[in-house]
């Protein structure tokens, strides 16, 4: 008990975060009933200041000179969806690494047998199916995922000046970035920097949005200087966490407003140096509580608002079946099933990451960033 009291007085912000991540209902209310008065007392007595001073002393990283955030175009027009680039370009050759999948011009991938899973932590607990009945406002865009028309490249990469690709997102990107490295790194005209973050999300309260998340994005862009930023995120946006004391029910209008605001903030940092952003739709997941259609409506609205500086890529054109629906496995060329999605139906195995990486490579070639490999 003394440890709980002492920790609450000395680390009130951490206790607030603990309360915000409790399941909505009596458990969150109970923790708040403790955290709010004890935290206020600790701040009034300035018992939190020693820990703040120690944190500043430990943080010895030099201050990065960052670029000012990019400004969203004043007038945005809604672009009409186009066919996925994987159905329009020539066949993409498989990478030289053995056991890698190949994507055909039919739009349906065929793969060679490789079932080695990539390593990720267990996904977040599936939200209650009750939230599936909650919808966003009628003004929200159609939630069906799509792939936007080609985004003209600013230059064509060469081995002397390779395309610099920054990969950001949550644990979905942690899986995907290794596929990007396997598929794109062998090319002499591409450099990949993977920055997926385990447990991260735009509505996850463990990070301070301005001081941690946006500052980190600004540092990434300033240090790596990407030509292209690729994004996959969404595994943790359905937990119903509280932000700054406000409960965010997944699928609600307020949930959508917060996500729109934060997605726009993030886009302004990713595009600070003029990079083009390619945003994958959040893959459909097995559980009904994962409202990926609603979430992808938010991503599509954000991408449309940034016009020619950003484009959408439909992840389910690769991970989905012929009708784009969720599927557990993919067929090898001889008809043998290969597991595609992991145990909880959220993340994907290496074969999925590699196929998505090939989808991106094809898009970059269609848009003119990369030349086709013979």
Distance between the termini: 67 Å
Overall mean pLDDT stands at 78
Count of strand segments: 9
Globally, the shape reads globular
What is the fold named in CATH at topology level of the largest domain?
Rossmann fold
The fraction of residues in strands falls at: 5-15%
Structure class: alpha/beta
CATH superfamily of the largest domain: SGNH hydrolase
Order of helices and strands: HHHHEHEHEEEHEHEHEEH
Largest sheet: 5 strands, parallel
Number of domains: 2
Strand order of the largest sheet: 2-1-3-6-7
Helix content, binned percent: 25-40%
Number of H- or I-type helical stretches: 10
So what's the CATH class of the largest domain?
A: Alpha Beta
CATH architecture title of the largest domain: 3-Layer(aba) Sandwich
Cα-atom radius of gyration? 22 Å
Unreliable residue runs:
76-123, 125-145
What does this molecule look like?
The chain is of the alpha/beta class and 374 residues long. The protein has 2 domains: 57 residues, no CATH class; 283 residues, 3-Layer(aba) Sandwich (Rossmann fold). It has 10 helices and 9 strands. The strands form 3 sheets. Strands 2-1-3-6-7 form a 5-stranded parallel beta sheet, with helices on both faces. A two-stranded antiparallel ribbon has the order 4-5. Strands 8-9 form a two-stranded antiparallel sheet. Helix 1 crosses helix 2, helix 1 crosses helix 3 and helix 6 packs parallel to helix 7. About 18% of the residues have low confidence.
